[in-house]
Amino acid sequence: MPGTVQEVSLEVNKIKGMAAFAIIAVVVLAVSQISSYVINNSLSIGETTVVNSFLFLTHTRNLGGVFGSFQGMGWAFALFSSCVLSGVLLYLLLGPAVRFYEYICFACIVGAGASNVIDRFIYGGVIDFIDIQHIPYWNYIFNTADVMIHIGLWSMLLFSLFWGTRKTNLAENI
What we know:
This protein has helices at residues 5-42, 74-94, 100-123, 144-162, and strands at residues 48-50, 55-62, 126-132, 141-142.
């Protein structure tokens, strides 16, 4: 049982961080799964809907990994992703000095990663549909989960670079 004010403060901050993590991860997961469901039930594979001259919605299935690499190896990416997501959860639960922004950034990454894993189990591959046009050398189609993974990763990188070094007082680290 925590005894000092610092230990109690750390415990309260961890509870707040995990609550924020859970809420954001569930929202990201839900939005990503709803978008996969809507695309899967609205467009045939390969079908495109033009939103405007810049944004098309094109239903594709990624049966591999990042940018369509290693097609047919989706099971390996699902297994690897599940291990990484489990590792992140352990870090957040057991880490002695997790900063609040880490809970937020990892929530985006975990919710999105879990959505891609679920897509692989439900649909046999990740449903991609965001098709950006008129960008030179860009021909990738992605989904909302991919967007959230990037938001989480890039935010984590920027916060880590500009937040400063870790303090020695763990209670001030949150």
